[in-house]
Amino acid sequence: MNYKFHSFPIIFSAIIAHLLISCSDSEIHSSDVPEITQSIFVVPESYIGDPYNRYAPSDEFYVDINEKIRFCGIYSVNGEFVPSDQSIMYYNTHKWTVDNHEAGTSSLYYKFDKAGVHKVSFETIDHLGDTLLSRATVYVNTPTTISLQSPPNRYNLVNGDNPNGLELSWKVFGIDPWESSICVIYASYYRDEIWDSPLGETECSQSVDLMGRLKKDINENGDPINHVIDNSTIYWGVRVLTKNSRGNIEQAYSDVFSFSTKLDNKGKAIIEVPVACMYSQYPEKSKLKGAFISKAGDTLSRFSDISVNSTIKKTLPPQSNVKIVVCDSIRTEYGCSSMTIDLAPGTKTLTDTLFLQDKVKPNMTPASTETSSSSPIKFFILDNGSGVNASRITTIMNNDTLKTVFDDYTLSIPNKCKKECKLVIKAEDYAQNKAPEVYWKISTVKSVTTVTGPYSETEYDK
After folding, report:
1. Is 1 inside any structural domain?
2. Which one of 332, 356, 380 terminates a domain?
3. Are strands 269-277 and 354-356 parallel, antiparallel or unpaired?
4. Do 132 and 6 touch, CB atoms closer than 8 A?
5. Least confident of 26-30, 88-92, 167-171, 242-246
6. Are strands 93-98 and 116-125 parallel, antiparallel or unpaired?
7. Final residue before a domain boundary, out of 302, 328, 356
8. What is the distance in angstroms between the CA of the first residue and the CA of the last residue of the chain?
9. What is the dihedral of CA 185, 189, 195, 199, to 10 degrees?
10. 8 Å CB contact between 186 and 197
11. What's the whole-model pTM score?
12. What is the average per-residue pLDDT within 96-122?
């Protein structure tokens, strides 16, 4: 695109006076008068330096909604840009007008909270009262989003032989009138490889038919797949390429969708539930147990001694509202977690990961309420869940932060209390549960130090 520069000659009184004095007996030519022009630049908010060193002026700009930008008015003398810190000699006043909002600055920080076409002008009044006026149009892009229409995400009743083809459809939002778009379709049997596997491109308003057999016959190890107990899952997604009238291209990606083929097992249903304990530092110390329960409350199947970060697999009669309950029998602070699912005939359902969460605060207690004044003060900090995060332990005695050692559930604190002290211990587990905010009273008499508490702040101050 050809950039348009709006320019008007400015004659400064100082220059005229100089010419009249030094050239009073000579003819003044137009070439003796410098030509002053001005231009509009748009740069990122954080950009430092003169904008012409990196960016180009224009009368059209494209920005994103809520993108923080800076409008810059830059002057030129005889075609050479003037540094911003030297531009004050070229004007009396100047102002920006953006969507009827005015500002009297040479640069203007701004963000548009509404998509669409916005008008901008930069007006300068020179020393003789003449006006320079530059105008620009700012196209604020609507964010591009992609929503799924069909098949439903994780749909697991697809005919693997696919004799009639399978329609993939989606809807794209945010294509502005000044933009054109194209959609690229991706699909793979492997989720991590989806964006490396384009199938082709189409108009974004179109759907596509996926033709051919959808069942995999060989797994990643090269072994035949038994379609009685194993289905095939296909992952797919859409990438939208949008191009504006200047030719700039942006892209947006959909979520990764999936669908699965039906089993050849004459009606049984298979369920796979990945299970994990969130923020667990000791997964080897957890053992999971639980059950599948019918809508009527009957126990369909029990399981126990299941390792964390594994998948529970069961074949069950097809039915709706099957509840799976999983509990940690060793790290009891993780408690239990559950989900409810529907099992259709001939399907294999892989659920989202069922996470068990530690919501219990660490607990602390003095290892001894009386100790030698020459010995460290010791506290037990216990957590039978995600575990105590040693890096998040802070010990404060009378407003001084102490260097401590935490090992084998025991916190060792240097005993610096000469008479009476207030001890604060802040701790949290890996699940970010903070220990109760309490205080301890430390008293030293001769060679003996005692620990009392815990107290709330109100109790301690009494």
Report:
1. no
2. 356
3. parallel
4. yes
5. 26-30
6. antiparallel
7. 356
8. 77
9. -30
10. yes
11. 0.72
12. 93
